[in-house]
Write a structure and sequence with these properties.
With 318 residues, the chain is an alpha+beta fold. Among the domains are: 113 residues, Ubiquitin Conjugating Enzyme (Roll), CATH 3.10.110.10; 34 residues, no CATH class; 63 residues. Helix content is 68%, strand content 10%. The strands form three sheets. The chain has a four-stranded antiparallel beta sheet with strand order 1-2-3-4. Strand 2 and strand 3 form a beta hairpin. Helix 1 crosses helix 3, helix 4 crosses helix 6 and helix 10 runs antiparallel to helix 11.
Length: 318
């Protein structure tokens, strides 16, 4: 059996405290990582998280004792007072399975709190109407609300109603105009009305500006359509001019000129042959034959020489 004297026991307690503090810091870092809007009431000991359930403000308070997390679980409470399977008096969250099975080396407090908030959002707790007005005061005075939120219409109204006597409350319940006047006198209501009026004025101004821009837009659109028609006409002229250009370019190309010279030389040669045949038949006198035949042969040889010269130049260029 191992026996601990006072010195050994002190060493053991110091080691435990060091390990517990390290694990505590891990859990706190997890809590802050999962909940960016968390408010630290007491450093490393007490935190609050605000969220909405059934359009009402709800606050979770997480308290960490000195023995957390190795020997004790976190204590989580909810405000205002409510009815929910996970909540037991006084406002203590105990029904979460992950919280019930909390273990310092296997549990993550950030995920546990995230699961609790998810449950309350999916299955909102039933708020106690009698206790709610009283708890609103404590919630609105909470540092997390003072720093991060603004009053709501329901909160302001409940604060006023909670201060009225039963007779006044009965009168309000029976007189709709009086109740409406009370609501309309609230600063938060007047702020909402002002914001609504500002939005309506802004929308009207934007509509007028849009109508002015519509005329300008239609004018620009008409000019654009005119430009498009002009571009289409210019494009058609360009295509026709391009066709004419290629036709002219083809007609004066070396190959085309050579072909024309070959045909012209052939025509001149045929003409000279006809003149020779006519002379042999005795159809024309010798003087006319010599004049016509020599002229045709001269044209033939000239065209033939040009055709051969053009062919030689084309070969040299290649």
């Amino acid at each position: 059996m191992i026996m601990f004297d006072d010195q050994n026991l002190g060493i053991f307690e110091n080691d435990f405290s060091s390990v517990n503090q390290n694990e505590r810091q891990k859990q706190i870092r997890s809590l802050k990582a999962f909940h960016k809007d968390i408010f630290e009431l007491i450093p490393e000991s007490e935190y609050q998280i605000l969220f909405n359930a059934r359009n009402e403000k709800v606050v979770l308070t997480i308290k960490l004792s000195n023995k957390f997390p190795m020997l004790e679980k976190p204590t989580i409470t909810i405000q205002p007072s409510c009815c929910h399977p996970w909540v037991t008096p006084p406002n203590k969250v105990t029904g979460s399975p992950s919280l019930q099975n909390f273990s310092w080396n296997h549990s993550d407090i950030g995920r546990i709190v995230q699961g609790i908030i998810h449950e309350f959002k999916c299955n909102p707790p039933s708020l106690f109407s009698a206790a709610y007005a009283e708890n609103v005061l404590s919630i609105d005075n909470s540092p997390i609300l003072a720093d991060n939120t603004t009053p709501t219409l329901s909160t302001d109204l409940l604060l006023i109603l909670s201060s009225l006597k039963p007779d006044a409350l009965k009168t309000l319940s029976e007189d709709g105009q009086l109740l409406n006047g009370l609501v309309e006198s609230l600063p938060i209501y007047q702020k909402i009305v002002k914001e609504r009026d500002d939005l309506e004025a802004g929308n009207a101004s934007l509509a007028i500006q849009n109508l002015k821009l519509k005329c300008i837009l239609e004018d620009v659109k008409a000019k654009l359509l005119t430009k498009i028609d002009q571009i289409s006409a210019l494009n058609e002229d360009f295509v026709n001019s391009e066709i004419k250009y290629f036709q002219l370019a083809d007609s004066i190309s070396p190959a085309s000129i050579k072909l024309k010279l070959v045909r012209a030389a052939s025509d001149a040669e045929l003409e000279s042959d006809k003149i020779a045949e006519a002379f042999l038949d005795g159809s024309i006198p010798i003087e006319s034959f010599l004049t016509s035949f020599l002229a045709c042969r001269q044209i033939y040889h000239t065209r033939k020489a040009k055709e051969e010269r053009l062919g030689s130049q084309s070969k040299l260029q290649l």
